[in-house]
Each structure stands twice: as C-alpha cells, then as structure tokens.
UniProtKB/TrEMBL annotation:
Domain of life: Eukaryota
Gene3D superfamilies from the UniProt entry: TolB, C-terminal domain
Organism: Oidiodendron maius (strain Zn)
Protein name: SMP-30/Gluconolactonase/LRE-like region domain-containing protein
Keyword Membrane: no
Entry-linked InterPro entries: 6-blade_b-propeller_TolB-like (IPR011042), Hetero-Diels-Alderase-like (IPR052998)
KW Signal (keyword) present: yes
Signal peptide: 1-20
Keywords: Signal
Length: 346
C-alpha cells in the first residue's frame, strides 16, 4: 500500500527516530502458525512478492528501487541477518518498485516509478530475466524497460492475464482502472474501468491488487481486484479470446480493506493483506465469511502488511508469504520496524 509523499516522509522521519524493532506479540493469539523469514533494516518498505518455481522469493521494495531474492528456508534460520536477502538488481536511477508478476518461468515484470513519491506520470514496467541468474557465478541479470505509462496515476499491483500471449494486467490506484500490457510489444490500453475501482470520496487509493483465476473448461478468467479505500474485494469475468470484459463485476466482500492479496487455488481462499488492521484476512474464492487468520490491530507480527503470495516449489501451497512496510504507513503505537517477510502455515 502506498500513500502520498508528505505522510510517507513524516513516517520515515518517525521511523529513523524509532528505537529498534518491536516483535512482541502484545497478547494477540493468531489462528495460523507463523515465523519470520527475513527482516530488512528499519526503515524498509517491502511492497510486493513473487515466488520462483524453485520456491525462492522475489521481493520488491518501495523505499528503494531494489529487487531482492530470499531463500525462505535458509533465510529463516537467521531472519535478521543481511545475508538472508540477496540484492538481485537495483534499478537506480528509478526510485521505487511495486507490483511483480511472472509470465514464462523466470521471466518477471515489475512496476517501477522514477520518483521517490511515485507521482503520476513516473511509472514504467521493466523486465527481469532470471533464467541464467546465479548469485555466485552469474550475478548479472538481463533487464530492460518494456513500456512507459506517462498517463498513469499510480501503477500498483500486477498479474499475468495470459502467459502464452505475454499479457499482463496492472492496477492504477489513482485513476481507478486496470491496464492490459503486451510485454512482447510494449503496447498497453485500459482493459477495465469500473465504479468499484475508483478512489472513493475522501480516499486516496482505489483499485490496488489484481489477480487472475482461470475458469475451468472455458476461455475465460476471473480478474480479482480489491479497492483499498472503498474496502472492497471484487471479481469480473474477462475473455482471453477477445481480451474484453464478458460479465458484470461481482462484489465478494465489502468492509475489509486490503492492500494486495493472493489467490490460493488449492485451498480455495483469497488471502488479503489488511494494512488498516495489521492483519491477514481470508475469504472463500467465491465469496463468503471473512476470517482474520493472522495479526491484529496492535500486533507487530505483520506490521503494515502489503502483499501475500502462496508457496511453490521447495515449499508448498500450505505456506503463505507476507510482506510488510514495517509500519511506515501507519506505525503501531508510534513505532516502526524493518519491513519483513513472514511465513504463515495454513
Ligand atoms: C531480531 O531483531 C529484533 C529487533 O532488533 C530483535 O528484537 C530480535 O531479538 C532479533 N532476533 C534475533 C534472532 O536476533
Ligand atoms: C490498540 O492500542 C490502542 C492504543 O494503545 C488502544 O487504544 C486499543 O484499545 C488497542 N486495541 C486493541 C484491539 O487491543
Ligand atoms: C504503547 O507504548 C507505550 C509506551 O511504550 C506502552 O506503555 C503501551 O503498552 C503500548 N501500547 C500498545 C498497545 O502496545
């Protein structure tokens, strides 16, 4: 989740004066087991996450233009050690990274901004090819700008719509639209513009996360999206043949805010990172009761959760990985800590 710069700057100032990180549980009993995989120095805003086929985690930072690789099994042995996270690439002179998605194996696309306050008109999508990446033997990666979005307000969450065609979708949290981008040609257009995506009156962020669920035995998918300040989770069917919407928006829940979220296809749930309550909430894929499975309003375990991803490869889908901003957006009791990656077993 990201906010406007004056608030972020005041939070960063606050962060630099905070005395260490707080990891006490403050008496809240979570329903899921969890452990810290890695904690970055304070202040670090960890913004989004993708998981390689190996099970290794790729995380983007909003507070720096940096992409990190984390092996969740080895890193969690010493979660505070800087050795737990390997800098894959710094995209300087860009300033901040946001959503990330994979199309072909080890071909990732990342939303970037060239301004530290992620101002409108500063966004682009860059590619990251990790096919030949080896931190020890071949640390250089191939990266390039795929497309610039001079007209976008605030590009945020990203997902792969059609891996075969190289089509990805990207939420614009200020303009309240979802773009479609052909990563092979760099061409983009607005795919979806719905009232449920707009910034609500008095709010700052509309549509934030986007994810894609195939609809079995059809050429259609559900595009899931949330709206942070309207506290909505919705889905809308889209045809992969016509690349157009083919049905109305369905509101799956209203009342729980979310930054980004993950679809757990095997388990049948959506896991939402709720920065307003420092919680992870889940809801069945087709809608239903919302249950808090981790964290709580005064719980620093996932302080300022920003995104969730479902385990792959060496781990499995019972492990969900959560990134946090360490309270930079909304510090618990006035104090921040380094952004974290937390594993939740559920
Ligand atoms: C990690 O750092 C936090 C905050 O500085 C500290 O409370 C905690 O004890 C550290 N954990 C380990 C295993 O050193
Ligand atoms: C959270 O902390 C605040 C400030 O200390 C307190 O007023 C509030 O009652 C707490 N909420 C819960 C649910 O513990
Ligand atoms: C907030 O911080 C104060 C001072 O350190 C402490 O007494 C209080 O228990 C804290 N409240 C919460 C909800 O953690």
């Amino acid at each position: 989740m990201i906010t406007r710069i004056p608030y972020l700057l005041s939070c960063l100032a606050l962060a630099s004066s905070a005395q260490g990180a707080h990891i006490s549980r403050r008496g809240y009993t979570p329903q899921a087991e969890s452990y810290i995989v890695h904690q970055f120095p304070n202040p670090t805003w960890v913004e989004n996450i993708a998981i390689r086929q190996t099970g290794q985690l790729l995380v983007t930072l909003l507070s720096a233009p940096d992409l990190y690789l984390i092996d969740p099994i080895s890193a969690s042995v010493h979660p505070n050690s800087t050795q737990g996270a390997t800098l894959v690439h710094s995209f300087a002179p860009l300033s901040a990274l946001l959503g990330i998605t994979e199309t072909e194996p080890d071909h990732f696309y990342v939303v970037a901004s060239s301004s530290p306050d992620y101002a409108p008109g500063t966004f682009s999508v860059v590619s990251v090819d990790l096919s030949f990446y080896d931190p020890a033997k071949n640390p250089d990666i191939v990266t390039k700008e795929v497309a610039a979005f001079p007209n976008a307000g605030l590009l945020n969450g990203m997902a792969t719509l059609d891996a075969f065609k190289g089509m990805v979708i990207i939420a614009d949290s200020i303009d309240g639209v979802i773009y479609i981008l052909d990563v092979n040609t760099g061409e983009s257009r607005i795919l979806l513009q719905e009232p449920e995506m707009a910034v609500p009156a008095g709010g700052q962020l509309g549509v934030n996360g986007v994810k894609v669920l195939p609809i079995a035995d059809t050429d259609k998918v559900f595009v899931y999206f949330d709206n942070t300040d309207a506290s909505l989770l919705c889905r809308v069917p889209v045809s992969l043949l016509t690349l157009e919407k083919v049905g109305p928006v369905e509101i799956l829940q209203s009342g729980y805010s979310a930054d980004d979220f993950a679809l757990d296809l095997a388990g049948g749930f959506v896991y939402m990172a709720d920065g307003n309550t420092n919680s992870i909430n889940r809801i069945p894929l087709a809608g239903g009761k919302v249950v808090t499975v981790l964290g709580g309003i005064n719980d620093t375990l996932v302080e300022g959760p920003t995104s969730v991803a479902v385990g792959r490869g060496a781990t499995n889908e019972f492990v969900k990985y959560i990134t946090t901003d360490g309270g930079l957006l909304a510090p618990i009791n006035g104090s921040t800590e380094g952004g974290r990656v937390v594993a939740m077993i559920i």
